[in-house]
Write a structure and sequence with these properties.
The complex is a heterodimer of chains A (235) and B (242). Chain A is an alpha/beta fold and 235 residues long. Chain A has a single domain (6-166, 203-221), classed as Rossmann fold, CATH 3.40.50.720. Chain A has helices spanning 15-26, 53-63, 86-107, 133-153, 171-178, 183-192, 202-213, 231-234; strands at 6-10, 30-35, 44-47, 66-71, 111-120, 159-165, 224-227. A seven-stranded parallel beta sheet of chain A has the order 3-2-1-4-5-6-7, sandwiched between helices. In chain A, strand 1, helix 1 (15-26) and strand 2 form a beta-alpha-beta unit. Chain B has one domain (5-181, 208-236): NAD(P)-binding Rossmann-like Domain (Rossmann fold, 3-Layer(aba) Sandwich). Chain B contains seven helices and seven strands; from the N terminus they run βαββαβαβαβαααβ. Chain B has helices spanning 14-25, 55-68, 92-117, 141-162, 179-186, 190-200, 209-220, and strands at 5-9, 29-34, 45-49, 74-77, 124-128, 167-173, 231-234. In chain B, helix 1 (14-25) crosses helix 7 (209-220), helix 2 packs parallel to helix 3 (92-117) and helix 3 runs parallel beside helix 4 (141-162). The N and C termini of chain B lie far apart (50 Å). The chains are: A alpha/beta (235), B alpha/beta (242).
Chain lengths: 235, 242
């Protein structure tokens, strides 16, 4: 019976991923974390490189039937188009988009009728900032993947959607800001860039993910749910 | 503790009644508003007959809400009408009426409702948009226009209301298996339209009214505390079909 409510969360050891794991468990899901790092609080924590197809396949083969797949894992790199090494560009694409394709490829078969898939995009898919070309491109690609996959999975009653946060108060955000020469100024500006006057809390992103996974969203597929506190509206 | 009061416009219609029911199930008390006072079936709340194009009537409706509850948590703007006419055949009065009801009604509930929402705990407004705001429909240009305008209105209002801590979002359904759609279908070949409408969605069917109502309840819930200025498509993937 427990197997009927199992979900997989990629990037399950990161701040948003771990929050999603914990909140899913509180709602009686069994949550599996797939990440480079261990999440000791997940029901199962598989440590792997999500860009390694063999490892991803083995992981999904070991888990069994799924009612949900949540792809959160992502990375970032700074670099102007004219200076960014191709290898760095490829790594961002492989981690941010490629791993989702692999998860759908090898996890898709395990998804049961009526299951939900949520892919993590970002408001970055809709704007551009100098020096983050790979990140912006990858998040736009996630939306394309989401829309394309929503058709392929629809005959089995499986819904595929995306969540796009604005700034979220996480280590990921802090590291990205620390890497910038004007990071501190951006941090101070970030709050003012949202109608809500602050960054998102990780649980607010997880709430959107869990809503889209649930039966309450039974007619929602191919959609992007933006959780940005009005960031895109405020430009 | 005061009950959590939710005002629903168009509450007597098929989707409106489902929205009322969904908020009741979620533990709210509902102020149900429509041209004819909706039946609350004995549930606690207020039932109000008001024409949303009549500013005085809307103002009085909110006076009644203020007297009963003193504040509001949510306004769910469901009310909307449709009119079949190509642009070259359209009477200006019909066009104006579409704008007045579908868009003007939301303007007036915001105008008179925001002071009451400002006293709520985690207040929000949820507006009924439609995939019609994105996909043209030959026979219903006025409807298409109002539904696109509602998303722009939602974005603009999210800024102004955001200064008072009020979130504003929209729900855009595809075809919904409810009275509004049935009425449009009754004017044509219902069987053919039903089949086409079902094929238009990735999920192979129209939405049930409750599925649209669930989106209203979620967007109004504390779980959506960082969602504002957005449109949530509840369209069974219709927008992704081409």
């Amino acid at each position: 019976m427990a197997d009927c409510r199992t979900i997989v969360v990629t990037g399950g050891a990161g701040r948003i991923g771990a929050t999603t794991v914990a909140m899913a468990q509180a709602r009686d899901y069994r949550a599996v974390s797939l990440d480079l790092r261990e999440n000791p609080d997940a029901d199962i924590s598989i440590v792997l490189d999500l860009t390694d197809e063999g490892a991803v396949k083995d992981a999904f083969d070991s888990i069994g039937p799924l009612v949900g797949l949540v792809c959160i894992a992502g990375t970032n790199v700074q670099g102007l188009v004219t200076e960014l090494p191709l290898a760095e560009w490829r790594r961002v694409m492989q981690v941010n988009v490629g791993h989702m394709m692999l998860a759908l490829k090898h996890g898709g078969r395990a998804l049961t009728e009526g299951a939900g898939v949520v892919l993590m995009s970002s408001v970055s898919a809709h704007i551009g900032t100098v020096g983050s070309v790979a990140y912006h491109s990858s998040k736009g690609a996630v939306l394309g993947l989401m829309r394309a996959a929503s058709g392929g999975f629809a005959p089995r009653g499986i819904r595929v959607n995306a969540v796009s946060p604005g700034w979220v108060d996480t280590d990921f955000t802090n590291r990205a800001l620390d890497a910038l020469p004007d990071g501190e100024a951006i941090r101070l500006r970030a709050a003012a860039q949202h109608i809500a006057g602050r960054m998102a809390r990780p649980n607010e992103v997880a709430e959107a993910i869990l809503f889209l996974l649930s039966d309450r969203a039974s007619f929602v597929t191919g959609s992007e749910l933006v959780v940005d506190g009005g960031f895109l509206r405020k430009r | 503790m005061n009950p959590r009061a939710v005002l629903v416009t168009g509450a007597a219609g098929g989707i409106g009644a489902a929205v009322v029911q969904a908020f009741l199930t979620d533990g709210a008390e509902v102020v149900a508003l429509d041209l004819v006072a909706p039946d609350l079936h004995g549930m606690p709340g207020l039932s109000i007959a008001a024409d949303l194009t009549d500013e005085q009537a809307v103002a009085e409706a909110f006076d009644a809400v203020a007297a009963r509850y003193g504040c509001l948590e949510t306004i769910a703007n469901v009310a909307g009408i449709n009119h079949r006419a190509t642009l070259t055949q359209m009477q200006l009065a019909d066009w104006d009426r579409m704008m007045d009801v579908n868009l003007g009604g939301m303007f007036l509930t915001a105008k008179y409702g925001i002071p009451l929402l400002s006293r709520g705990i985690a207040p929000s407004i949820v507006n009924m948009a439609s995939i019609s705001g994105h996909v043209a429909s030959d026979d219903f240009p006025a409807y298409v226009t109002t539904k696109a305008a509602i998303e722009s209105f939602t974005g603009a209002l999210s800024q102004e209301a955001g200064e008072r801590g009020i979130r504003v979002n929209a729900v855009a359904p595809g075809w919904v298996d409810a009275g509004f759609t049935h009425a449009a279908m009754a004017e044509g070949n219902a069987g053919q339209i039903h089949e086409a409408a079902s094929k238009a969605h990735l999920l192979g069917r129209m939405a049930r009214a409750e599925e649209v109502a669930n989106a209203f309840v979620w967007l109004a819930s504390p779980g959506a505390s960082f969602v504002t200025g957005q449109t949530l498509f509840v369209d069974g993937g219709l927008m992704r079909v081409h």
